[in-house]
Each structure stands twice: as structure tokens, then as C-alpha cells.
């Protein structure tokens, strides 16, 4: 799934490669996927063919491809990008394919579910997730300081967990279940720990690790659980993920616990992250 580090890293990879390229042809759903979502009643080929790409940039959890004539392709969720320079290199299955006049391609495939939506002029996604992504600062922004982080705390958190705080209500757009695992581990916090129980020093550490961990993930081209535009895993080696949890805690050797919580899988070390 595209999370904040990947939308930034992949945009940085795609922008210099695709800026100025002209779209020669476009096809959709060559391999049908019931959870690949497109704009309804929109002829992508008619609108996008012969248009040049102006820019590719992130909007928190989204990647935007800006084209001529005020056209924008907006990607979200489980989209995988494949940039290749010949037809022979294309993946076997894809749901959106752009061929450029120089003979190169950008293929997009969907893992689980994903959206590739086309907007024109002042149109933009109207869902609350995009609105939050467009309006709120993210941990890479100067405006994401400790005072702002503290302002995200609800007035009456009751027993809200640290995972619920960091990952729900679009408090920090683009920070999803995958990125949170390492943030919590490096902050020494159990995902189920009530946010109201944190002392100021612990809250500051959570803030620092949110910024530092996400920055490292971005700078290393994304997490090793995600594939970049060349089909290679990101260079950030996850501490807690599907790739590592069977190996035990890297600090103390204790078995890592894997369980379902708040709509996703969590991993934690019961010794290093006590509840």
C-alpha cells in the first residue's frame, strides 16, 4: 500500500523520468481487476493521448500526475508503478498502461485495491482523505512541529491507543499501519498503550520517531515491503513487518507478537514495548 514514504520516494523517481514525455496511447484493464477504480463516464484515452506530462508530485497518501490541459491523474492505495523502456519488460498484468512517444511505458497494477482517477480543471477528489491530505502538514513539513503534534490529541482521549491516535481520523495523512510498526518500536511504545498514559517525554519521543523514521524510509526509497518503479524493494529495512517478525526482536531476542488490532496487523516486542 502507498504510504507517505512511498508517495514521496516514488514521485521523486517518476518526476525526472516522465516530465515532458508525451502520451502516445493509453489502455485500461488489460487484466481486469474488480477492485481497480477509475473515474466513471470518463474516456481516459480521448483526454490523455497526445498530452505531455508536466509534473508528478505527492499529496500525502496520493501521487498526482499533472498533464497538459489541466488534466490530473490521481493514484492512491495499492497502486504499483512499473517504468520500463520496452514492451518486453512490461509486467504480465496491469490495469493502466501509458505508452509514450519515445517508446517507454508506465504500467500501473493494483494490489488488493487501488484508484487511478482522472480530474480536469478545478475538479479534485472530494473524499475526506484527499481533503485532509491537501490541507494538513505532514511530518516532512516545517509546520509539523511538536506544538502541532500535540494539538492532534483529542480533548478526551479516554482509552484511545497510540495506534488509534497515529493512524485514525486522518490526523497524519499518509501514515498507515505499515509505517507505524517501526515508529512504535523505536519509541518503545506498545500499539495498544493508551495515549493518555504517555508522559511528556514519551510523547516527545513518539513525535521525534515519527519524523525520523518516516524521513529515513523516504530517503531510502521506501520500505523493503514495497516495490519501487523498477520492481525492486525499497532500501529501508523494516524492523517489524511481515518480512521480519519470525526472526525475534533485534534488541532482546524475544519472540515478536503478531495479532489483529484496529483493522490491521500489529507486531510488537512484549519486552521492549510493554503495555
Automatic annotation (TrEMBL):
Keywords: DNA damage, DNA repair, DNA-binding, Glycosidase, Hydrolase, Lyase, Metal-binding, Multifunctional enzyme, Zinc, Zinc-finger
Record Pfam families: H2TH
Single GO molecular function: zinc ion binding
Residues annotated as domain FPG-type: 228-274
InterPro entries to which the protein is assigned, alphabetical: FPG_N (IPR035937), H2TH_FPG (IPR015886), Ribosomal_uS13-like_H2TH (IPR010979), Znf_DNA_glyclase/AP_lyase (IPR000214)
NADP among keywords: no
Family membership noted in the UniProt record: Belongs to the FPG family.
Protein name stated in the entry: Formamidopyrimidine-DNA glycosylase
Species per Swiss-Prot/TrEMBL record: Candidatus Enterococcus clewellii
Amino acid at each position: 500500500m502507498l504510504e507517505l514514504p512511498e508517495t514521496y520516494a516514488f514521485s521523486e523517481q517518476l518526476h525526472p523520468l516522465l516530465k515532458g514525455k508525451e502520451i502516445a496511447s493509453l489502455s485500461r484493464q488489460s487484466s481486469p481487476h474488480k477492485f481497480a477504480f477509475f473515474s466513471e463516464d470518463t474516456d481516459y484515452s480521448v483526454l490523455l493521448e497526445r498530452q505531455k506530462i508536466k509534473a508528478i508530485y505527492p499529496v500525502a497518501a496520493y501521487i498526482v500526475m499533472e498533464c497538459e490541459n489541466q488534466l490530473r491523474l490521481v493514484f492512491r492505495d495499492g497502486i504499483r508503478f512499473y517504468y520500463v523502456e520496452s514492451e518486453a519488460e512490461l509486467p504480465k498484468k496491469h490495469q493502466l498502461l501509458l505508452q509514450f512517444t519515445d517508446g517507454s511505458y508506465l504500467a500501473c497494477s493494483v494490489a488488493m485495491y487501488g484508484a487511478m482517477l482522472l480530474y480536469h480543471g478545478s475538479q479534485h477528489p472530494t473524499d475526506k482523505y484527499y481533503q485532509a491530505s491537501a490541507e494538513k502538514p505532514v511530518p516532512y513539513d516545517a509546520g509539523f512541529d511538536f506544538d502541532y503534534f500535540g494539538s492532534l490529541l483529542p480533548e478526551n482521549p479516554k482509552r484511545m491507543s497510540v495506534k488509534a491516535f497515529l493512524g485514525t481520523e486522518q490526523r497524519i495523512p499518509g501514515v498507515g499501519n505499515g509505517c507505524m510498526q517501526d515508529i512504535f518500536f523505536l519509541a518503545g511504545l506498545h500499539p495498544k498503550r493508551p495515549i493518555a498514559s504517555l508522559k511528556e517525554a514519551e510523547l516527545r519521543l513518539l513525535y521525534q520517531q515519527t519524523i525520523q523514521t518516516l524521513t529515513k524510509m523516504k530517503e531510502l526509497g521506501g520500505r523493503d515491503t514495497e516495490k519501487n518503479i523498477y520492481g525492486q524493494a525499497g532500501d529501508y529495512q523494516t524492523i517489524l513487518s511481515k518480512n521480519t517478525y519470525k526472526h525475534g526482536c533485534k534488541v532482546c531476542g524475544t519472540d515478536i507478537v503478531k495479532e489483529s488490532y484496529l483493522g490491521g496487523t500489529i507486531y510488537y516486542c512484549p519486552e521492549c514495548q510493554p503495555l
